[in-house]
Amino acid sequence: MITIAKQDNPHTRHLVSKWMFEPTTTMPILFDQLGKRFADRPGGYTRMHKIGFRHNDRAPIAVIEILKTDMPDSDLGFKLTLRKLAAAQIQQNTTGNSKIVDQILASIQKVEDSSNQEDGSSPFTRDLPRTDKFTFKKAVNIRRRDHRFAVKVSKLLKNYNLTAGQLQEQVDLECNNLSGLSLSTSASTQPTN
């Protein structure tokens, strides 16, 4: 639809109006905002974020985001990563100088340093106890997942031209928001006398 909306003429408006549920409200957004925003972009207008599973039937749930490359604060991927970082910081109860962003960047450096060793072993399998095959594979998968998230945070810093300190400030603000949210929900679930 966005590709069609980049060519704003009566014919394309007629084609799009056949498919729209409420053409009077959605067509101005599609042609006036989205068509102009993505006029120079050949494709890739959306991003899909998997957010978990529905409770009743465990069907996968996803949020489809229309990209806004000029405003990182409105970017859903940025917000979801901030929320994950804040949740990890709250879960670890990090205080003082030990901040979650510094820990993640240090873990990237640790993997890079250990992968440069000449013994040929993988940085994900090094220093793991080899008790049984299942436990070993699970530990390796956890390390790989954590490393993928750390690389995602590193790319986030690079793409949005943020320093580790600036990202940590935003993570701290999100921690305060999450703490306030958990306090308000726990207060609302308290029985009243």
Description:
With 193 residues, this protein is mainly α. The protein is built from seven helices and two strands; from the N terminus they run αααββαααα. It has a two-stranded antiparallel ribbon. β1 (46-53) and β2 form a beta hairpin. α4 crosses α7 (164-188) and α5 (100-115) packs across α6 (133-159). The longest helix is centred in the last third of the chain and has 27 residues, at 133-159.
- How far the N terminus sits from the C terminus, by CA atoms, comes to 55 Å
Instruction: Report the radius of gyration as a whole number of Å.
Output: 23 Å
Strand content: 5-15%
Helix amount, in percent?
Answer: 55-70%
Ranges where pLDDT stays below 50 over 5 or more residues in a row are none
How many H/I helices? 7
Q: What would you call the structural class? A: mainly alpha
Tell me the overall shape.
Answer: elongated
- Order of strands across the main sheet: 1-2
What composes the largest sheet?
2 strands, antiparallel
Which features would summarize this protein structure in a list?
193 residues, 59% helix, mainly alpha, 8% strand, Ribosomal_bL17, ribosomal protein
